Structures are given as structure tokens and as C-alpha cells.
Amino acid sequence: MSEKQMSAVRQFMKRKNIVFSARRYGIDALGAMAQGLFASLLIGTIISTLGEQAGIPFLVTAGGYAKAVSGPAMAISIGYALQAPQLVLFSLLAVGEAANELGGAGGPLAVLVVTIFAAEFGKAVSKETKIDILVTPLVTILIGTALSAWWAPGIGSAANAVGQLIMWATELQPFFMGIFVSVIVGIALTLPISSAAICAALNLTGLAGGAAVAGCCAQMVGFAVMSFRENRWGGLVAQGLGTSMLQMGNIVKNPRIWIPPTLASAITGPIATCIFAMQMNGPAVSSGMGTCGLVGQIGVYTGWLADIASGAKAAITPMDWIGLLLICFILPAVLSTFFCEILRRMGWIKKGDLTLE
Question: Domain check: are 209 and 328 in the same one?
């Protein structure tokens, strides 16, 4: 291809807002997918559980409707992150349904990959013809469903296989894998990527899901408590119930502030897997949410209820509650503060290093 042709392609891509970058696809799109999953499957599960516990059929029904549209919700969220035009965005509803259904247990990852391709092709043809109202949805839907039929089963199987491997390894080596999963997922939660989307894509549940919850809680509660002297109650709530990602700017300035919550996650992870055998048998996306809106804890609780209903668990025991409180709240707060004070005395963490702007 000549330089002139290359220049024309670049100009076309710029005009169509098609940007091939790790940030757009690996951060923006992935994060948006998690929000779509939260607004459908996750919140639907919470609503249904509330309805079942309170004996309110309406809530059970409403939750069921929310859970049923998880594929379209993810797709339209991804399209929004990719800044797709309206016709492309609305056409992605069908693409999300196809990819999620054909992707099986690994449906979220299939939705992510297929939707990105369908959205970018849709953007490329958008408003290029006088019959845009026919061409744009036609191209978006046909390419999306064709790729779903072609790729989604394989992508879903591969993602599920990786998730199953991690869960199998955690069952086999709960101590070391408890550390590994807890630390890695916790770090992903604080980075500008989506730990929730990663857990959902890998269908990470069971003992490994419990370790993931532990790691996320260590980061969120850890940063919230150890920065209390700088950020007070507002910072405690924003990080403890919101996201530890708020500290990312401070981490870039002084990476050492990341040591305390990460060490805490390396301790709480194996405690979760080896001592309390804490499992996430609720929605996989909950494994990567930590204490954000208490979604991780609600996911563990709904998993308990599901286990009781299936006969896998006789009842919720006091030890279950003790483990949940220790792993998700008490130990992250105590350990992170302890390690932080050591680093403060060493001069590695100074006054103002944890202040949120």
C-alpha cells in the first residue's frame, strides 16, 4: 500500500473515530462491559435474592428480567465506550445476545471480542450512504451474529477452560493459589482495568472466587483505612464502598503506598481459602467487586443461599459470618494499617502521599 493510500486510511479512521489502542479496548471497553454486567446480571441477582428472602414475587420477576438481558446490556455498554453512533449502538443489542448465548459460560469475553469488531465495522459504514438506516444496522448485526456463530463458542470455551484451570489449581493448592489469585485480582481492581470484568470473563467462582473477593477487599478497605488521617470520612466511604482506583494517581507518584494493601491481600487470600474455605458461588462478576456497594459480600451471601437450596450446604453458620467479616473488613483494615505504619516510620510513605485530590 502506497503512502498516499495509507494516509487516506488514517484519515478515514480518524473521521470514523476508530482507534486501535490497548486503552480503548483493554480498559474503556472492558470497564464498560463490567458496568453493563452489573446493571443486568448482578443487580438482577440481588433484586431476585431480596424478593426470595422477603417473599415478594414482583422483585423475583423484576430480577429475572434484568438477568435475562445481560448480553445486550454488555454489548451496548461496550458500544457506548467505543463512542458508537446511535444506529450502531442500538444494533449491538442483537449482537450481545448472540455472543453471550453462544459463548456459554465464557459469554462475557465472547461479547467483548465480538462487540468490538461489530461496533467498529458499524462505525465504518455509518452515514456513508443515503440509506444509512438500513445499511448500518444490517452491517452491524450481520457481522456481529456471524462472528458470534464463528468465534463465540471457541472464545467462551477457552475463557471457561482458563477459569476452570484456576479454580482447579486453587482447590489443589489453596495456599499458594489463594495468594496468587488474591494479589492479582486485587491489583487489577486498583488499576484502571476491570477486575469484575476479568472475573466474569473467566467465570471465576468457587474457592478461587473467594480468594478474588479477599484480594479486592484488601485493596479497597486497606487504602480507605490507612489513608483515613489524610482523607477522613469522605475518603473512607469513597474508597471503602467505591473504588481503590482513586489512589492510582498517588500510586504513580509513590508506588510504595501500594505495598501495605497488597501484602494484606497476600495474607487474607490464603486465610480465605485454607481456613474459612470462603467461596463465591454467586455471580462470577461479584468476585471482582470487593466491597464496592458491598457487592462482593452480597455475592457470597447469595452463593450460600444457592448452596442451601441445592443441598450442597446445610445452613449458614456463625463461622461463615466470622470468616466474611474477618476477610472482607477486619483483617484488611488491621493489616494494611500495620504495614503502612511500618513504611511511614521507614520514610517510604510520607504525609500527603495518600491524600485524594
Answer: yes
Q: Which residues contact 163 (CB under 8 A, 6 or more apart)?
A: 105, 106, 202, 203, 204, 208, 284
User: Please, are residues 108 and 116 in contact by the beta-carbon 8 Å criterion?
Assistant: no
Q: Are residues 101 and 206 in the same domain?
A: no
- Got the DSSP string for 249-307? HHHHH-GGGGHHHHHHHHHHHHIIIIIS---B-S-GGGGGTTTGGGHHHHHHHHHHHHH
C-alpha cell at 285: 462478576
Binned at pLDDT 50, 70 and 90, residue 1 comes out as low
Q: Return d(Cα 69, Cα 109) in angstroms, integer.
A: 16
Burial class for 54, CB neighbours closer than 10 Å (0-12, 13-18, 19+): exposed
Close Cβ partners of 96 (under 8 Å, ≥ 6 residues apart)? 71, 72, 73, 74, 75, 76, 111, 115
Question: How many structural domains comprise the chain?
Answer: 2
Let me know if residue 128 belongs to a domain. yes
User: What's this model's pTM, rounded to 2 decimal places?
Assistant: 0.82
pLDDT in tens, 161-213: 999 999 999 999 999 999 999 999 999 999 877 788 889 889 899 999 999 99
Q: Where are the alpha helices (DSSP H) in the chain?
A: 3-15, 22, 29-37, 43-54, 57-68, 70-81, 86-103, 107-125, 132-172, 174-190, 195-202, 206-226, 228-237, 248-253, 259-270, 295-310, 318-325, 331-346
